[in-house]
């Protein structure tokens, strides 16, 4: 490090960046926290926002508010686009597409992953993923608008298509979304319409494996399957979604059986993740090996080989099959901060050791799974444990108090009080309406595409 006060640049305000900044808040360093949204998002509860259980404010907090009391932490809004390791600078993109440069002595890459469409990027137009607040609000709009459009249609195939929802991916996010949509249809919306019966809505869940929640113990996975079936979710295993269109999906069985066509006007994609473009740029610039998803190979201390001043934490760290979960990001951020503190004190760094704190998945109101080592809990007790664990990790005391109040209220009544959504207008194509004829993907400006290629 330089003889002056070290400059630490953290890219990403997720769990890794947040916990790293918190740990360094009183250290003798100047911290810049660069994030493309200016908020910390509690991503594990994103689907609860998408389905009206929680509001945006319950699962996010402005980074400026979070660090307002720390003089050595400066949050900045911008998207990192290029790295110059010799000059130790990062160029960032402002929302107006102008750029600015940030200098650093130590760089923490905690930018996370984005939704992967497995090489079929055109699917994103019809099948939003579940990674950002924008995704959650778009999904909320699509789900609720589908019921509203169905209400205006006569009985027949077109109405049925609008009341059919397809979810690609049987991991925790896919299972949670599928269960929530059926719960909305059978509990929340059941008495609110006149022409349709919302409980007749079909929810199709597609996965390439032979069971949902493959990272959970088989008995918990079986309980999740049983609960989903009781809710009315139709599960299709051993298949891949190979085409997504305006009016349906194509599903290809892995056993070589003929393709199947499913008519639906609402498709949600949760099948896979990949590194954000900047992370791939960093790996290429530094000559660091990556895996197929773009995770960067790191040293035992989470630094990049040949660049001890650059750390990679969270989902992007490719070492020892580290899981892409919030706990790994939190622990990685804390470890990177500890390494910086040890460097300042002239002590050697320690290797990173991930501690598995377990896994949890929400299935429906009053029903969740929790797996911590040999401890396996499901049903109502699992639901209570799931809620307490997630609330414990929420950012900021205010967020915890308001979320606890909302969550406790939902115990008495399975209501959804955050169902407001907005629709776009034909004269403002940047605001999408749901599957209208003019809603076609438009090419971005050449320089904008270049930043994301």
Describe the model.
- Its cofactor is FAD.
- This is NADH dehydrogenase.
- The protein has 13 helices and 25 strands.
- The protein is an alpha/beta fold.
- Strands 5-2-1-9-21-20 form a six-stranded mixed sheet, with helices on one face. A four-stranded parallel sheet has the order 13-12-11-17. Strands 6-7-8 form a three-stranded antiparallel sheet.
- Helix content is 32%, strand content 25%.
- The C terminus is likely disordered.
- Strand 15 and strand 16 form a beta hairpin.
- Helix 1 runs parallel beside helix 10.
- The chain is globular.
- The longest helix is centred in the N-terminal third of the chain and has 19 residues.
- The protein has three domains: 181 residues, FAD/NAD(P)-binding domain (3-Layer(bba) Sandwich), CATH 3.50.50; 150 residues, FAD/NAD(P)-binding domain, CATH 3.50.50; 54 residues, no CATH class.
Summarize the structure in short.
With 453 residues, this protein is an alpha/beta fold. The protein is built from 13 helices and 25 strands.
Strand element count: 25
Q: Which term fits the overall shape?
A: globular
Distance between the termini: 33 Å
Share of β-strand residues = 15-25%
The helical percent reads: 25-40%
Supply the CATH class of the largest domain: Alpha Beta
The tally of helices reads 13
Low-confidence stretches: 434-441, 443-453
Secondary-structure class: alpha/beta
Mean pLDDT: 90
Strand order, largest beta sheet: 5-2-1-9-21-20
Rg for CA atoms: 23 Å
GO biological process, one term: aerobic electron transport chain
Family: Belongs to the NADH dehydrogenase family.
Protein name: NADH dehydrogenase
InterPro entries: FAD/NAD-bd_sf, FAD/NAD-binding_dom, NADH-Q_oxidoreductase
